[in-house]
Write a structure and sequence with these properties.
The chain is of the alpha/beta class. Helix content is about 40%, strand content about 20%. It has a 6-stranded parallel beta sheet with strand order 3-2-1-4-5-6. It has a 3-stranded antiparallel beta sheet with strand order 7-10-11. Strands 12-13-14 form a 3-stranded antiparallel beta sheet. The radius of gyration is 19 Å and the shape is globular. The protein binds nicotinamide-adenine-dinucleotide (NAD) and (2S)-2-hydroxybutanedioic acid. One of its GO terms (biological process) is tricarboxylic acid cycle.
C-alpha cells in the first residue's frame, strides 16, 4: 500500500455531483484500493457550510483510505498540491437551455482556477473538467496554466460513452461488457457524434447487428440528447451517472485501459483526424503509463466525417466566443 496520500481537489463539492462523487473517491474507487486520498474541497463561500456537512458524513463512513479533508473557498488554497483536480463546480443548465448557453455564466470560473492550478498544483496534476460547457471550460483552464503540460487538461465525455454503451448493448441484446470500440467524437453537446462504425458487439461488427435507420434516427439522437432527457425527467441534471463517469475517466487515466479496446475522452487535439490542434475534443483513446493516447489509423467514412466536422465546428465557435469574451 502506498503511504503518501494523493491529493484530490474537487470543486463544487457541495453540489449534487459532488455528493455522488466524494464517497466513491474516499472509498478507493477513483485511485484503487491501495491508495490513500486526501480530499481538498473547493466551494464558493455560500457552499462551504454544506460542504462541511458532507465532510462530516465522510468522517462518519470511517473510510480506511481517507487520510484527510480540507475545505476552501479560495482556489489557490484548494488546488495547492493537487495531484488530481476534478473541476465540477459550475452552474448546471435547466430545462430548455443548451449547454453552450452556460458559456458566459461558467466560463469566468475556469480562468482563475487554471491560474491556481498553474501556481500550486503538484507537478503530476491531472485535471478533469466536468462543469459545462466542459470542453471549452477545459480549454479556458488550460490556457491559464502555461506551465502545466496541456495534455493534463481533459474534459468529460465518458458519460456520453457509457450512455452509448448501454443503448447499443440493449438494442443488440447483449451485456454492456460485450460492446467495445465505440467512440464519442467532438463536443459534449447535442452535436457530439457517437460512432459505432468500428464497434464490436459480442465479437461481431456492430454494423452487422443494428441497422442504419436505427443508428441515425434512434441511437445518435438518444445519446446526444440524453442530458436533456434526464433534466426533463428528474427536473435536475444528471448527477450519479456523471460522478460515475468521472470516476471511470480518472481511474482509467491513472491505472490504464486494458488491451486493444478503447474509451472516449476529450483531450487536447494534436491535429489527429483533422481536429484543429489545441482544441479539447473527444477522441477514441487508450491510457498508458498515466497518459492518454489517441487511437490512430481508424478509417473515417463520409457519414462520420460530416458528423465529426459539425461537432468540431461547434468547438471552434465556442473557442472563438470565449476569445471574444476575453476568457482566453
Ligand atoms: N460533462 C458531463 O458529462 C456533465 C454531466 C453532468 C453535469 N455536468 C455539469 O457539472 C456541473 C455541476 O453540476 P451539479 O449538478 O453538481 O450542479 P450543482 O448546482 O448541484 O452544484 C454545483 C456546485 O458548484 C459550486 N460552485 C459554483 N461555482 C463554483 C466555483 N467557482 N468554485 C467552486 N465551486 C463552485 C456551487 O456552489 C454548487 O455547490 C454543471 O455545469 C453541469 O452542467 C457535466
Ligand atoms: O446535459 C446537461 O446539461 C448535463 C450533463 O452535461 C449531461 O450530459 O447529463
Amino acid at each position: 500500500m502506498t503511504t503518501t496520500p494523493v491529493n484530490v481537489t474537487v470543486t463544487g463539492a457541495a453540489g449534487q455531483i459532488g455528493y455522488a462523487l466524494l464517497f466513491r473517491i474516499a472509498s478507493g474507487q477513483l485511485l484503487g484500493p491501495d491508495t490513500p486520498v486526501s480530499l481538498r474541497l473547493l466551494e464558493i463561500p455560500q457552499g462551504v457550510k454544506a460542504a462541511e456537512g458532507t465532510a462530516m458524513e465522510l468522517d462518519d463512513c470511517a473510510f480506511p483510505l481517507l487520510a484527510g479533508i480540507d475545505i476552501f473557498d479560495d482556489a489557490r488554497q484548494g488546488f495547492d498540491g493537487a495531484n488530481v483536480a476534478l473541476l465540477v463546480g459550475a452552474r448546471p443548465r435547466s430545462k430548455g437551455m443548451e449547454r453552450g448557453d452556460l458559456l458566459e455564466a461558467n466560463g469566468g470560473i475556469f480562468g482563475p482556477q487554471g491560474e491556481a492550478i498553474n501556481a500550486g498544483a503538484a507537478d503530476d496534476v491531472k485535471v478533469l473538467v466536468v462543469g459545462n460547457p466542459a470542453n471549452t471550460n477545459a480549454l479556458i483552464a488550460q490556457r491559464h496554466a502555461p506551465d502545466v503540460p496541456a495534455e493534463r487538461f481533459t474534459a468529460m465525455t465518458r458519460l456520453d460513452h457509457n450512455r452509448a454503451l448501454h443503448q447499443l448493448a440493449t438494442k443488440a441484446g447483449v451485456a454492456v461488457n460485450e460492446v467495445e470500440r465505440l467512440t464519442i467524437w467532438g463536443n459534449h453537446s447535442a452535436t457530439q457524434y457517437p460512432d459505432i462504425f468500428h464497434a464490436r458487439v459480442g465479437g461481431r461488427a456492430a454494423t452487422d447487428v443494428v441497422d442504419e435507420a436505427w443508428l441515425e434516427s434512434e441511437f445518435i439522437p438518444t445519446v446526444a440528447k440524453r442530458g436533456a432527457a434526464i433534466i426533463e425527467a428528474r427536473g435536475l441534471s444528471s448527477a450519479a451517472s456523471a460522478a460515475n463517469a468521472a470516476i471511470d475517466h480518472v481511474h482509467d487515466w491513472v491505472t490504464g485501459t486494458q488491451g486493444e479496446g478503447w474509451t472516449s475522452a476529450a483531450i487536447v487535439s494534436d491535429g489527429s483526424y483533422g481536429v484543429p490542434e489545441g482544441l479539447i475534443s473527444s477522441f477514441p483513446v487508450r491510457a498508458r503509463d498515466g497518459r492518454w493516447e489517441i487511437v490512430q489509423g481508424l478509417e473515417v467514412n463520409d457519414f462520420s466525417r460530416a458528423k465529426i466536422d459539425a461537432s468540431v465546428a461547434e468547438l471552434v465557435e465556442e473557442r472563438d466566443a470565449v476569445q471574444q469574451l476575453g476568457l482566453v
